[in-house]
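Hi R.,

Here's the chain you asked about this morning:
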Amino acid sequence: MLNQIYIRNFAIIDELELELNTGMSVMTGETGAGKSILVDALGLVLGDRAESEVVRDGAERAEICAYFDITQLDAARNWLKAHDLDGDGEECVLRRVISAEGRSRGYINGSPAQLQLMKALGEMLVDIHGQHQHQSLLRPDIQRLLLDDYAGNKALVEQIHDLHRQWQRAGQELEALRRHAREKDARLELLRYHVQELEALDLGADELDQLDEEQRRLANGGKLLEQCGAALEALYESDEGNALQLINHHLAELESLRRIDPQLAGVCDMLNEAAIQIQEGCSELRHYVDRLEPDPARLAWVEQRLGAIHDLARKHHVDPEALPGLLAEFSEELRQLENVDIELETLEKEIGRLAREYADSAAKLSQKRRKAAAKLAKAVSAVIQELGMPAGKFSVALIPREEATPQRHGLENICFEVAANPGHPAKPLAKVASGGELSRIALAIQVLLSNSQRIPTLIFDEVDTGIGGAVAETVGHQLRSLSKNHQVLCVTHLPQVAALGHHHFQVSKRIEKNTTRTLIEELNDQARQDEIARMLGGVEITRQTRAHAEEMINRAATA
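And here is the predicted structure, written out as tokens:
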């Protein structure tokens, strides 16, 4: 729901901060006071296009912020998360800034957002009915959703969506398989050659590293023999003196000194350990040198093997390490192509099965839609006739789709139609309904669908235009009934509607120092009674009009 709205330098509002509550809030004021300014500002923060004229004279920019509680709105929270715009998860803040030069910037939870994103999110949060762009009732997709909500088709619609998604995916797989089939012969020959070549190479998982290591060893055999031999000579084998002899000689002298000073015991132990390590190390080195014999034939074979591996890798534009994976990939494609006829037949059968299941489910959905359409048309017609359209007749047309293939939303398009006058055929809402008529039709549908309606905040701007008396009171009761499941904000000029609100805001226009500005304030009980009395009696408020206003408010409290 909409918790708060902040407006600065917009039209004739210099600065305004308004907190809103649950239930039904009404907004009244003198003609020309600017009752619809709040709705206009909210429309901008919800993605409407802006003109520089909305900026207050003398100001550099206008700013509008709207704060929404989204704790119960899973769809909005999921949308925000999907677009990386989620905040704390409980509140969503929409902000719009319009400069005097006409530039406009939008923000969602503090992050810059394009107008299309603000509009998409706004349609999940608020629905505005009246002379404004946020008339979702005119959109075919919303009309379809409303009818399916009314019919209780949620599970069936989801089933059809799933079947269509499976059918579409299977069709894409079939098309890809058919392309393979058309290229089958040439591709088969090439794949068989590639697989045969890679299988003949038979590159092992760790073979490349092993070959590289062996090639380095064989190619540097002379150097290894020379330097390892020199090390053996110096450490162990030289008759003219080697490291082991030197250590043993001095170790013997230190051992004799150890009896004089026991502190040399540690040094003697370490030198003794060093002598043992040299002996063992030289023994291992001797075994290594004995095995290290030049092998030109083996070196030639290793280098030839490495060359074959690198040549094949360059041919396929991959690293040598990727050749085993490439063999597996080619082998799988070869298997598929060799079995393409069987897979084509299997996939065609699967597509046929999905199409039959879709057709059965879509036929059930169409039947439920037809029944619900007749019921909804009758119910809405009855309500709008009570709302000042005595000859109004509402209908729901199910228009078969031209496409013969399965479609995501079933077999038909949904179109809401109305005949406002006797003898005239029903036509789509967008073509025949005036703003006031559309608002009342929307009100009727919202009341009938209040338990399933997805949008939490509903705004009705001048829905009571052109009506009065008992019809006005009926409109008020319908709005109050709607507020049981929604937050409702209604801009009205009728006391019958205003008296039925849970909260009452007054819009006034003041002129100070040659400057005009609009104020909006919530009324207490006494001020509310005075305002409804003014709406009833005009400029002069008499005892009778005040008593009438008090009676209307008291009667509304029991509604």
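One quick note: The chain has a mean pLDDT of 85.

Cheers,
M.
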